[in-house]
Amino acid sequence: MREREIVVVTGASGRIGSAVVPLLRREGRELRLVDTAEPSAAEPGEWRDLSIDDATGLRDALSDARAVIHLAGIASEAPWSDLLRVNVDGTRILLEAARDAGVGAVLLSSSVHAAGFHVPDRVGEAEPLLPRPDTYYGVTKAAMEALGSLFSDRFGMSIVSARICTFLETPDPGRAAASWLSPGDAARLFEAAIALADGRHHIVWGVSRNAQGWFPLGAGEEIGYRPQDDAMAELHRLGVSVPDPDPTDPIGGPFTRPDHPIGTRW
């Protein structure tokens, strides 16, 4: 009899979790969905009502798990104290719980905003691209990547820091033509991270295979992530015209503007 595979998803009731959890269900796989609000996609017995700072509860939820997809966190700019507590310390608590539970594979939801001040024509020059955060939010995502590196190097955990770009059900004709991440490709990225067992830390772009794309796919392909969707093809199918993106505009978009608030919710 095939042993069941347990996959934990934190932040499962959020925008990404709600869209992707149904795509992660497999025969022989048990999903454990962690959040403080019941995910709309939850099936009976899957949901664990837990805060990301509940170390004891997380260790219990992670018991016997193969992998954890860590989506929990504050998803935009906010006061520094809140971002530090949830995005940085919450990730540390999650990684410590995963280590204690013997979880071998972790995906951390980093963000394009960890490198938001890079411009498109420089993005492909190096993999991984060094952080250039555009906000306090982006700083916490860069810190999340550093925590992933530490836990991988010190404890031999296979960790993917996925710099999630523009996650939408369908792309809009603006920046998403180059930076779209479709739900289907998000699921493919998560599956690649679940299967990983090399004891290394990888920084990859969470992005689809967009014809107008800015982001190199090599680091993702190295872990088995092969995106299939293309924003341009989808927009053309919908009959939407697509302007050429400005290659000098930082990849963080409006987060890099002087009038974008730092340290306050928006």
Question: If you had to describe this structure to a student in words, what would you say it looks like?
Answer:
With 266 residues, this protein is α/β, with parallel strands linked by helices. It is 33% helix and 17% strand. It has helices spanning 15-20, 55-61, 80-101, 120-123, 136-155, 176-179, 183-195, 218-222, 231-237, and strands at residues 5-10, 29-35, 47-49, 67-70, 105-111, 158-164, 166-167, 180-181, 201-206. Strands 3-2-1-4-5-6-9 form a 7-stranded parallel beta sheet, sandwiched between helices. β4, α3 and β5 form a beta-alpha-beta unit. It is globular and about 50 Å long. The chain starts with a strand and ends in a 29-residue tail after the last helix. Residues 257-266 have a biased composition (Basic and acidic residues). Keywords: NAD, Oxidoreductase. GO terms for molecular function: oxidoreductase activity. It comes from Microbacterium barkeri.
